[in-house]
Amino acid sequence: MATGFLRLGTAPVYIDNEAREGVYVRAMLDTGEWILPQVPNHVENDEIVPDKPPLFHWISASVAWVRTALTTRAIPTGSEASRRFDEWVLRFPSVVCGVLMVMSIVVRGRRILGDRAALLAGMSLLMSVQYIQQSQYGRVDMTMAAFVTLSLLLLGEALLDGSGRALLGAAVASGLAVLGKGPIGLALPVLAGTAWIAIDGACRRSLRGAADLPWGWALLVWAAIVLPWYLGAYAHGGTPFVRSQLVSENFDQYVGNNGSMRWAYYLRPWLYGSWPWNVLAVLGVGLAWRARDRRAIFCSTWWLVFLGFFELSAYKRGAYLLPALPAGATMCGYFLDTVLPSDGGHLRDAGAALLRHGWIPALAVAAAGFGGSIVSLPPVMGRIGVRLSVLDGGLCGLGFFVAIVSLGTLIRAVRARRWWVVFASLWLCEAGLFHGVIATAAIASAARCSPKPVIARVLADLPTGATLTVSGLGNDPSLPVLLYFPDQAHIIVVPSGRGLPTFFAAGYYLFSPHEWAKITGAPVGSLGTWKVLWADQVGERNSPVPVIFVEHRS
Asked: Are residue 441 and residue 461 in the same domain, yes or no?
């Protein structure tokens, strides 16, 4: 979790989905409209209103405002906070909600599975690559998933122990999940809870425990959290709000009106997203049902219902599996708690041996130093395409060293059947890979793909007060450009479906080669006088996206 905060703002934004949320946050700050801000420069679902509820954006905008106030030591305006908005602020809600997700598993999960199983579940979740990526990614998914996780843990406590207070807490968490991403924040807890009540009622031949809970009060609490914003958003946006957030982003996605994927689509992201903990979770499900462990069966029901829900959806994305990840972690923790010895003596012996061999920490420091020193060398920079910081190179070198040493320890521990050492070695190996090597590679890839350097070049040549018009990049690919332009009042993004205008005002334009070819192919003088200032490109070296910066004179 510490490395999540450490390099949260290092990678520039280049993915459309992440830029979209940043554009919405900046619109909130610029306009002061925190209910349903309009973004005329971006069209989503043929509407200019946000396509997701605002909890993520509220958190990010609040952090931007507070940080600006602390930096300037004055009460800032929204536009000032918007100009100071950056990657760190954009991703802050995700990493905070990621911490909330892990802590919910460790703290609340112990009431269901016990202390050790909950701790092991939290540790497996921490080393799941999908969790690591989504907790450092400026999207609403982690916000929704964290509160859905807390809702299910509290719901499980309510159903298993008859706690009315826990049920009210589950309603609060579900309401916040709905404000995070929409109706799915209610649908997932309801489906999992209903399935569990049906299974448990059939086994015990009684629904009395569930029926005695204060469901009516829980519904009122949930409505008090959700309805004020939905009613306010409808008052501001009307039918466009309903079409964008409720119909297109929920109903159309699920039934396939926005596209569909094959049934096996989720197999690869599921295996990759939490390997090998997901395999241990499957074994944990088998153990739970064989032992008829009522509490573990609740967690397995939670996991299987979530996986089934997303599998039945026509439209699929790997990120959609994120809410199921904590449920799988609980089953992994249950399995590890069952099979690992109660005595962790082997693990203590391994730690003592590490301390006795002082050369291992010394080599770790040397690996970090070597990684930090070589990233600025010209051959290395030429190979990776960008210049990384000393910190990035050091963490990459340290991560590589930790992964190699842990892998060797893992092989030896498997042969000796020292299972605690096997678990610790596997955990450290993934920590080195995911937080060191893979995270650094992701930063380098983002730096190569982001339009941030191109926009900096545009701003250096754009006269004060001039307006930039962007045409031909498409509605979604233009989002990172829009995000990095500091003054939203002086940028115009031409929708991709509008086509080439018949009249161009004097000013500055950023064209794609396709749009520029249309202009240069027109009769001489029919579209005015143009001056090419420079050409550049964004995107990976193997698939660059050219852009042309031009000035138009009437």
From this structure: no
Residue 461 to residues 267, 284, 387, 468, 549, Cα–Cα distance (Å):
48, 60, 24, 11, 10
Nearest to 84 by CA among 103, 98, 63: 63
DSSP conformation letters of 28-69: HHHH---SS---TT--BTTBSS-SS-SHHHHHHHHHHHHHHH
Tokens 């950056």 belong to 86
pLDDT on residue 28: 94
| Judgement on whether residues 382 and 484 belong to the same structural domain of the protein | no
Cα separations (Å) of 325 from 145, 332, 517? 9, 10, 48
CB of 376 within 8 A of CB of 387?
yes
Q: Are strands 507-511 and 491-493 parallel, antiparallel or unpaired?
A: unpaired
Residues 166 and 20 in one domain: yes
First CA to last CA distance, the chain = 55
Shared domain for 240 and 364, answered yes or no, is no
Residues 434 and 528 in one domain: no
Q: What is the pLDDT of residues 432-444, one digit of tens each?
A: 999 999 999 999 9
Q: Which has the higher per-residue pLDDT, 351 or 22?
A: 22
Number of domains comprising the chain: 3
Instruction: Report whether pLDDT(527) > 60.
Output: no
Range of the domain at 434: 345-447
Q: Is residue 217 domain-shared with residue 362, that is, in the same domain?
A: no
DSSP, collapsed to helix, strand or coil, labels residue 533 as strand
CA distance 52 to 248: 11
At 278, the pLDDT band (50, 70, 90 cuts) reads very high
Residue of 153, 192, 11, 168 whose CA lies nearest to 95: 11
Structure tokens at 310: 């997303």
Residue 412 domain flag: yes
484 and 414 together in one domain: no
Strands 545-553 and 529-538, how do they pair? antiparallel
Spell out the residues 6+ positions from residue 130 whose beta carbon is closer than 8 angstroms to its own. Answer: 269, 272, 273, 274, 318, 319, 321, 322, 325
Contacts of 117 (CB under 8 A, 6+ apart): 109, 110, 330, 333, 334, 336, 337
Q: How far apart are CA 39 and CA 479, in angstroms?
A: 11
Is residue 268 situated within a structural domain?
no
Domain closes at, from 258, 273, 289:
258
pLDDT band at residue 387 using 50, 70 and 90 as cut-offs: confident
Asked whether 129 and 273 are in contact (CB, 8 A), the reply is yes
Residue 23 sits in the same domain as residue 85: yes
Among positive and negative, which fits the CA dihedral 327, 442, 318, 4? positive
